Amino acid sequence: MPQTIGPAARLAMVAAFGAMVAAPAAAQTVLRFAQLTPKTHFYQTDILDPWIADIARVTEGRVKIEVSAAPLGPFPRMFDLAKTGVADIAAGNHGVIAGRFPIVQIAETPFEEDTNPEAMSVALWRTQQKFLEPVNEHAGTQLLALHTSGSMHLFSRVRPVTKKSDFDGLKVMAPGKTGATFVEKMGGIPVIKSVPEYYDTISKGIVDAALATNTSVAGWKAEEFIKYQSRVPGGMLYGSFFVVMNKAAWDKLGPRDRDAIMKVSGETYAKRAGRVFSEQDAKSLEARRERIQVVGATPELRADIVKAFSFVDDEWLAKAKAAGIDGKAALDYFHEQVRTYKPSTSQ
């Protein structure tokens, strides 16, 4: 015999059902990251993917990042993709965006001693926070992270470069204005191209040589066309990279999620990126050991390189002064942080 539900019980059931309908499901914000490298590249697999997983974890699933299936624009436009909202998040290289980021390119200061990408990356982030932030070069976005690549060396298709005169008439691919100016001062002919253009530019013989990192030559599959590498203590140049988020998209996130995201970004991201670049640098060197002739720089060539790069700090200090910051203090702090930082030994 069916049971009769009383008026009070019926009202309680209706109220409970109404509450279930009214209660919204936990909202999830999905952010689109503009693809920077092929999805099999170590930057994606070893740096971005772990960071994306970290953000999902620390926000308890409230924020999800999806990488676009294809590039949303050319390499030099990555910053603008995020600033204009074509992408929610983007990463890229400061050096390929001519004249846009003169102050954060403090990382291009030359070093005469060996260093490593992790120390450089952490030092860059700390210097940005302590000295460079008021310049607001990344305006229109939320700066999530900074880091550097490995150090650049000279890779040649045509001849070993062991002295300054070997640069004479050499067409050299450079990833930015600083590298191009250096090539000119050494007697070469600079050709400015972005990192994704390494393969086409080198394989087609458009250039005779390239100023590049170990990882960029290997990661962009241009290594098979290289015959010689000139290695220099401290490297010839470091490039700086950014990770930024569209400001409007950032502001839509709650304070709790913004704080959580920055805890796994900033210096934490710099450490991971720098460590991965260090590891990949070593792997690239080992893998090519029997295929490419590695030539160490002579003291004379090293002296010529130092002289050719002398313009970098002078120009940067002038730009820092124009921007209203204490350039000498910032530069000294950056160098000190690089010298004293102890690379991490664990993941």
Strand content: 15-25%
Number of strands: 11
Q: Biggest sheet, open or closed, and with what strands and sense?
A: 6 strands, mixed
Runs in which pLDDT lies below 50 for 5 or more consecutive residues are 11-25
Number of helices: 13
Content-based structural category: alpha/beta
C-alpha-based Rg, rounded: 24 Å
Anisotropy-based shape: globular
Write the layout of secondary structure elements.
Blueprint: H1 7-22, E1 29-33, H2 42-58, E2 63-67, H3 78-83, E3 89-93, H4 117-132, E4 141-148, E5 152-156, E6 171-174, H5 177-185, E7 189-192, H6 198-203, E8 209-213, H7 214-219, E9 228-231, E10 240-246, H8 247-252, H9 255-263, H10 266-287, E11 293-296, H11 299-308, H12 311-323, H13 327-340
Parallel strand pairs: 1-2, 6-7, 6-8, 9-11
Antiparallel strand pairs: 3-10, 4-10, 5-8, 5-9
Helix pairs in contact: 2-10, 4-10, 4-13
Structure characterization notes:
This protein has 347 residues and is α/β, with parallel strands linked by helices. It has 13 helices and eleven strands. The strands form three sheets. The chain has a six-stranded mixed beta sheet. α5 links the parallel β6 and β7 (189-192). α4 runs antiparallel to α10 (266-287). The chain is globular, with a radius of gyration of 24 Å. Residues 11-25 have low confidence and may be disordered.
Structure described in brief:
This protein is an alpha/beta fold and 347 residues long.
Observed structural traits:
globular; 347 residues; alpha/beta
